[in-house]
Amino acid sequence: MKVYTLYIEDDRYSVPTLLSAELSGDERAAAFVSEILSRSQHYLAVDAWDDDRHVIRVERG
Fold first, then answer.
1. Is it the case that residue 8 has pLDDT exceeding 90?
2. For 34-46, what is the mean pLDDT?
3. Which residues sit opposite 48 in a β-bridge?
4. Does the pLDDT value for residue 61 go beyond 90?
5. Phi and psi for 48 in degrees, rounded to 5?
6. DSSP designation for 37
7. Which strand ranges, in their side-by-side order, compose the sheet holding 53-59?
8. What is the rounded CA–CA span in Å between residue 27 and residue 29?
9. Which of 18, 25, 45, 52 could form a disulfide with 9 if both were Cys (CB 3.0 to 4.6 A apart)?
10. Cα 37–chain centre separation
11. pLDDT over threshold 90, residue 45
12. Rounded distance, CA 53 to CA 19, Å?
């Protein structure tokens, strides 16, 4: 298991929301990012990081 740092861009706030998630790997992180993005129409994008390595960015639209 790895701990990923997620940054959620939300149109209601000027600063991204920070979330940590313990996930089984990059494939699960990619799926989780998509799940997070679908939870609110206010979410514009979600980035997942594994320490200093950018794993994925998913944007709405």
1. yes
2. 98
3. 6, 56
4. no
5. -115, 135
6. H
7. 17-23, 2-10, 43-50, 53-59
8. 5
9. 45
10. 8
11. yes
12. 16
Strands (E), 1-61: 2-10, 17-23, 43-50, 53-59
Structure tokens at 2: 């790895």
Contact 15, 8 (CB under 8 A): no
By the 8 A CB rule, do 19 and 3 touch? Answer: no
b/e per residue 27-44 (b: at least 16 CB within 10 A): ebbeebbeebbeeeeebe
pTM listed for this prediction: 0.93
46 vs 32: CA distance, rounded Å: 10
Q: Residue 21 corresponds to which tokens in the numbers above?
A: 């998630």
Stretch 37-47: mean pLDDT: 98
Supply the pLDDT for residue 12: 98
